[in-house]
Amino acid sequence: MPDKILLGHGSGGRMTRELVRDLFCRQLGDVAPDSMDDGAILSADGKIVFTTDSYVVSPLEFPGGDIGTLAVCGTVNDVAVMGARPLWLSLGVILEAGIELDLLERIVRSIATKAREAGVKIVCGDTKVVEKGKGDGIFINTSGIGVLEHPLVPETIEPGDKIIVTGTVGDHGMALLTMRKGFPLKSDLKSDCAPLNHMLAAAQEGADVKWMRDATRGGVATVLNELAENRPWGVLLQENDIPLSDAVAGVSELLGLDPLYSANEGKAVLVVSASAAAAVLDVLKQSPYGRDAAVVGSIVADYPGKTVLNTEMGTLRTLGILASDPLPRIC
Amino acid sequence: MPDKILLGHGSGGRMTRELVRDLFCRQLGDVAPDSMDDGAILSADGKIVFTTDSYVVSPLEFPGGDIGTLAVCGTVNDVAVMGARPLWLSLGVILEAGIELDLLERIVRSIATKAREAGVKIVCGDTKVVEKGKGDGIFINTSGIGVLEHPLVPETIEPGDKIIVTGTVGDHGMALLTMRKGFPLKSDLKSDCAPLNHMLAAAQEGADVKWMRDATRGGVATVLNELAENRPWGVLLQENDIPLSDAVAGVSELLGLDPLYSANEGKAVLVVSASAAAAVLDVLKQSPYGRDAAVVGSIVADYPGKTVLNTEMGTLRTLGILASDPLPRIC
Fold this sequence. Notes:
The structure is a homodimer.
Chain A: H1 14-28, E1 39-43, E2 47-55, E3 61-62, E4 65-66, H2 67-80, E5 84-96, H3 101-118, E6 121-130, E7 138-148, E8 162-165, H4 171-179, H5 197-206, E9 209-214, H6 219-228, E10 234-238, H7 246-255, E11 268-272, H8 277-285, E12 294-300, E13 307-310, E14 316-318
Parallel strand pairs in A: 5-6, 10-13
Antiparallel strand pairs in A: 2-7, 3-4, 5-7, 8-11, 8-12, 9-11, 10-12, 13-14
Helix pairs in contact in A: 1-3, 2-3, 5-8
Protein name (chains A, B): Hydrogenase isoenzymes formation protein HypE
Family (chains A, B): Belongs to the HypE family.
Domain PurM-like C-terminal (chains A, B): 158-302
């Protein structure tokens, strides 16, 4: 095999087959079929959840993960927050001619590692190659299928319910920002990219979780805005209770950025009844991905349709939805 | 809305939501949910088929279709040739900043038209935007879910079985070739891009179809090579019986290209028992997409593992698998 991707690797001919067999299937090992085709036959009972996400993150590798880590965790989490057990992923890659096979191999190895951890199989795949200058290294689409186990019940949300965040907020977005070309500071920020399915399923086993969402693009503030939109109640967050790593706190302050709008790739936001909050928090904290979980606010009768922050200074601030993220291509 | 895609359309914030609502959902109409999210809950009984395909065709619009037509038909056909009824598609788009919204709108309209014809719903979607120069207009991934209805039985294939092609071969690849920048000839070639699911399901209703495959990248020769590989029997094609449009025949001869290796996006290859061949052909010919269907060869005890062509001149020629397609980005 050459050491770089050539246009022929996308032809569907022998070069494509060798790439799939010698790189993809070899690196994916037990999490993929022996010869990965573009389709798979699967057995599903009951209701299924179907999700899709394309990943165009830049740079392809970053502290805490790479585009492969992201492509598995992101889609696993999308399925999990719908109350489903993720089982199968598809893997569609668009490669730019000229990228190093070594890099691709590292990325596929990350896919295998995270799929194994999440307990999902990569059951079908597709490889395309575009000319140099017509892509950006590698784009990945993963679609996910899961079996619905604990349907969410957002219609039962009422004032008094508690809002839980499963850990420190803003890590992924801030880590990506400080990695970007030309960024003047070194930091020890790391992406929080992680598969949350086991932790969220455990949380749902113990207590009624009314609603969940992974707080990716747009961050915690954006998903809460989507939750509250057009509802007869509002969301009131307590800034003092929001878990923040020192590194994110430092960079946010320095740059004047709000970590509540910064992307997470290993954090979910949950709404639970007040009586269930302590038990859910206990379960979350038993996971390495939930150690810093905290109740960060409540559903309130005031401010219907709005997400409001009670700031450290005791003032109230409405958190609107971002028109556009100042930092493109974080996932 | 601006008339071009901006990076902010991929932010996950308000601009993304407006693009999804005002362009995608509006154009998709009844084939998509009112507000398209990245996940959907679906009910499936029995075995499901799951496929994925990314589309990077260049140019984005061509005679007979566009990347949207292709993204629906290609994935619908992938599901259908596994013996399943396609029901749901995901839609992941990667847009290059700067593309015209008008172009995107035409493409989404094609998606709607073909989804309606195929009887599938677009149930979940995702939109990402990359900087100008880091993509090529629009890349699309569609993953498909179908319910298995007529499982294929390739293990029952035996010498004497007939090979059917559902129509003229090579149209899509040749049409794309003559569209490419710098190609010196005008032609009236058109892509054959079409959803084959209804026709193939009808063919399977009437008779045992042992094996089917859509003959996309690599053409009829490549899918037959994949069929015969490592089998105790071979494939013998009769060149005289292979349906060819005059336009494809002309361009192929002029350029010295073999239409058997040229991509199709609306043709399938079937293997049926000799006794069923006439009935299957009858059913296929009732569809507008199967008018030119023909028996083009047989499974033979000779040439195990190989695909052999009995040429017009009466000589035998082995059809190998292409290492690499001379024409990149045809789908």
